[in-house]
Design brief:
The complex is a heterodimer. Chain A has helices at 12-23, 29-36, 40-52, 86-94, 121-132, and strands spanning 2-4, 7-9, 73-81, 99-106, 110-118, 138-145. Chain A is α+β, with helices and mostly antiparallel strands. Chain A folds into 2 domains: 2-52, Winged helix-like DNA-binding domain superfamily/Winged helix DNA-binding domain (Arc Repressor Mutant, subunit A), CATH 1.10.10.10; 65-145, Alpha-Beta Plaits. Chain B is mainly alpha-helical. Chain B has helices spanning 3-9, 35-44, 47-56, 58-65, 70-81, 87-108, and strands at residues 18-23, 26-32. In chain B, a hairpin with a 2-residue loop joins strand 1 (18-23) and strand 2. The longest helix of chain B has 22 residues, at 87-108. The N and C termini of chain B lie close together (6 Å). Classes of the chains: A alpha+beta, B mainly alpha. Chains A and B meet through strand 3, helix 5 and strand 6 of A and strand 2 of B.
Chain lengths: 160, 109
């Protein structure tokens, strides 16, 4: 692994390790090492370096909230903004506890796309009416409440 | 000038303005930062927005908690009991709010 301009250049082994831990981050360094034909200490060193450089941002767990009785709804909001205010609006939205993701898109208009969660529709509406609509630069908002999730995966690395 | 009338007619902060939605989370871009602006917006926003807020009780809540006008709150409640739909909602709200606005303006002059 070496730095090339501001980007980090990974070798084949780094890519293979990333692919292995992205599929199952709970497997041991020894198991990953065995799969790839290298020592577990090599896997450990590579992972440490990728953590330090920020390639591996965090280790987390994906919990099924419904199975443990935490009911919630997910909504996708499209926030139409005055272009002069969009960066500021996006930053404020990013800080809200109800907001999980914030992205920006420049199509015909400048849009902020937000994934938000709330306990129920009333709490969602209250959040949008009291905290999002009043933000300076917000022109209008379209919201879709997710009723059925068909697939939700992260982009998987292909090291081949 | 009546201080309570002046309070009801004041210009509000952005946080206390009324924001018009058509359904949960769908903001139309229309907002009212005073009772006078509210009266104007009633004539402009889509009727489905008026219907959404009337039957959720949002107008009454705002008239009571933000404008602090019990009379307007009661009159909007009375409109709701008539169960108007479509343009009848606009007409009845317009009449109710405009009439109350004139009363308050007369009290302050």
């Amino acid at each position: 692994m070496r730095l090339k301009n501001q980007e980090v250049a990974l070798d084949t082994l780094d890519w293979q390790i990333l692919q292995a831990i992205q599929q199952n981050s709970k497997q041991t360094y020894s198991k990953v090492g065995r799969q790839l034909g290298v020592a577990h200490s090599t896997v450990y060193d590579r992972i440490r370096k990728m953590e330090k450089s920020g390639i591996i941002k965090k280790w987390t767990v994906d919990i099924d909230l419904e199975k443990i009785g935490i009911n919630h709804i997910t909504a996708r909001m499209t926030v139409y903004t005055d272009p002069k205010e969009s960066e500021r609006v996006a930053k404020i939205l990013s800080e809200a506890k109800e907001v999980l993701e914030v992205s920006m898109s420049l199509s015909e208009e400048l849009l902020i796309i937000v994934k938000a969660v709330a306990r129920d529709q009333e709490e969602l509406h209250s959040f949008i009416a009291k905290k999002v609509a009043p933000l300076q630069g917000v022109l209008r908002i379209r919201t879709s409440i997710v009723t059925k999730r068909i697939k939700e995966e992260r982009f998987l690395i292909d090291s081949t | 000038m009546s201080s309570s009338s002046a309070r009801t007619l004041r210009t509000l902060s952005r946080e206390n303005a009324f924001y018009f939605f058509t359904s949960v989370g769908n903001y139309t871009g229309h907002r009212a930062m005073s009772m006078e602006e509210f009266a104007n917006k009633i004539r402009k926003v889509q009727t489905n927005s008026l219907e959404f807020h009337l039957y959720r009780g949002d107008f009454e809540k705002w008239a009571d908690e933000v404008l602090e006008d019990n009379i307007l709150t009661e009159r909007i409640g009375a409109v709701k009991l008539l169960k108007p739909i479509g343009n009848a909602i606009r007409d009845q709200l317009d009449f109710t709010v405009t009439k109350r606005l004139e009363e308050l303006k007369n009290q302050t002059s």
